[in-house]
Amino acid sequence: MPPTMRKQLEHAVYTCLAYGDSKRSDKFNDAIDTDWKLYSRTYKRDILDLARNFGKFLSTAYPSIKFAHQISGREIQAYLDSKAPTCTSGTLAKLHTHISKIENCCKQTYKKARFSWHTDTVTLPASTKNADFVKDTPVPLEVSKTIIATLQGRRSEVSHAVTLSTYAGMRAEETTCMKVKNLHLSGGEFGFGYVTIAKGPEGGAKGGRPRTIPILNQEAQDALKSVTAGKAPEEYVAAKADGTKMTPDNVQRSLREVMDKQFGHIYKGNRNHGMRKAWAQRYYDAVRNGGCTRKQAVEKTNEVLGHGSNRGEVMVKMYVANIW
């Protein structure tokens, strides 16, 4: 009699713990497969909780499935569908991604079995929880421009940070790490220049992933040029009044204060993230209009957002409302 499905999935997770390994070093070593490794205790806890819950679901709903390698997209789809009434869209997307991680753990642990869960065939269900609430509401360009103008009267350069989120889709932490030398006003995908996000803490890149962000058009180029005018290459684009590095909290706190005062609670969640979402839609539209297929546009959008080109539509849908 094989172990229960829950026990099989739990064992796979425990087998793939890699607390002593450096995630950053591994990512830049092509010889190391990081798909199955669990580097942090927090991430392990999340994956383990899901493995237990998913295993219990399978044992109840699909008792004929006795081994982990027998799981398919059908069962994963049913599991996600069962979560739609109690989970937000963001949580459903996270569950989908984490199930893929569990499959990689199983492949590493049960190497003699052939695995193909077909998670890429699963359709992310629409959440029916708090249907009226949208986390990190996209912030339209005109609204962002109004906020930038309002913030320009402040002693700190928080308006510069908001400009970077608006016109380059950058995270709050990335805007506070960016230096003038990382902005290039020629070349790039659209000919208007590009922004480079350095790897590691210095660049603020989430997960340590470096990337290049193209400047979309003349308006964006002019806006980004204005926030670097008169600055030396090593200076921060968005600095405090004394020229020192700003923190993401400085930016987010100022945004909440100004946006809530002018627009109430229309734009919920992380306001920088809402600006990033609006930028992602503009980028997606630009590459589609430039001749990219839907698949190509999805891959390129994932890449410029810093998610990796292989994350698929599940990730893009969290940022781009209109995928055409």
Q: Quote the distance from N terminus to C terminus.
A: 49 Å
Q: Determine and state the CATH class of the largest domain.
A: Mainly Alpha
Largest sheet: 3 strands, antiparallel
Indicate the CATH topology of the largest domain.
Answer: hpI Integrase, Chain A
Order of helices and strands: HHHHHHHHEEEHHHHH
Domains (count)? 2
Query: What is the gyration radius calculated from CA atoms?
Result: 22 Å
What is the average of the pLDDT values?
91
Counting H and I runs of at least 4 residues, what is the number of helices?
13
CATH homologous superfamily label of the largest domain: Intergrase catalytic core
User: How much strand content do the residues show?
Assistant: under 5%
Contiguous low-pLDDT stretches (5 residues minimum) are none
Tell me the overall shape.
elongated
How much helicity do the residues have? 40-55%
Q: How many β-strand stretches?
A: 3
CATH-level-2 architecture of the largest domain = Orthogonal Bundle
As laid out across the biggest beta sheet, the strand order is: 1-2-3
Which class best fits the helix and strand makeup?
Answer: mainly alpha
Provide structural commentary:
- α1 (5-15) packs antiparallel against α3.
- The chain has two domains: 5-121, no CATH class; 141-316, Intergrase catalytic core (hpI Integrase, Chain A, Orthogonal Bundle).
- Helices cover 49% and strands 3% of the residues.
- The mean pLDDT is 91.
- The chain starts with a helix and ends in an 8-residue tail after the last helix.
- The protein contains 13 helices and three strands, in the order ααααααααβββααααα.
